[in-house]
Amino acid sequence: MEYDIQIFSLTKKFGNITAVDNLEIQVKKNTIFGLVGPDGAGKTTTMRMLCSLLVPDSGTAQIGSYNILKENEKIKQDIGYMPQRFSLYGDLTVLENLEFYSEVYQISKKERKEKIESLLEFSNLTKHSYKLADQLSGGMKQKLALSCNLIHTPKYLLLDEPTIGVDPVARREFWKILFELREQGTTIFVSTPYMDEAERCDEVGLMNKGRIVKKDIPSNIINNFDKHILCVYSDENHIARNLALEEKYVMDAYMLGEGLHIVVDDLDYASEKLREKFNNKIIVSSIKETAPSLEDVFVNIIKSEKR
Amino acid sequence: MNLKRIFSIIRKEFFQIKRDKRTIAIIIMMPIMELLLFGYAASTSVDHIPTAVYNNDIGIESRDLLDSFVNSQYFDLDYNATSMQEIEEYIDNGNAKAGIVIPPEYSKDLKNGKTAQIQLIVDGSDPTTAQTILSSAGGVVQSMSVEIIKETRGIEMPQVLDLRSRVWYNPNMSSINFNIPGLIGVILQTVTLMLTSFSIVRERERGTMEQLIVTPITKMELMVGKIVPYVIIGFVDIVLALALSVFWFRVPIAGSITLLLLFSVIFLFGSLGVGLVISTVSKSQLQAMQLSMFMIMPNILLSGYMFPIEAMPDIVGKISTVLPLTYFIKVLRGIILKGNGFGQLYQEFIILTSFGLGFLMIATVKFKKKIE
Question: Which residues span the membrane (chain B) (predicted)?
Answer without folding.
Answer: 21-42, 178-201, 227-251, 257-279, 291-309, 349-367
